[in-house]
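Title: Prediction job returns without error message
Component: structure pipeline
Severity: low
Priority: P3
Assignee: unassigned

Description:
Job completed but the reporter wants confirmation the result is attached to the right record. Sequence as submitted:
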Amino acid sequence: MKSIIKYQIYKILESKGYDGKSGKMVPQKEAKMHVVYTNNPDDPNYSYGQLSSGSTQSLKTINPDVYNTWQVGAFVTCEMEVAPAE
């Protein structure tokens, strides 16, 4: 089953992360996000947001093309499908 999940970034942390290509430590950012609640049954986030609002997720990257788009208050939407363990 696929779910559409809408998150909102509430905090951005910066640390150092390992870049496997260069072998060096580089800036790394982590977006801390919570699931957005919605009352709108037409919203693709409705089924997930109704039961899981307040759930959190974090996303880390060393890619500045990605983390430079992050801002506190910004929304991140993703599609998730869980497959059985092999």
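Comment from assignee: result matches the submitted record. The two ends are 17 Å apart (CA to CA).
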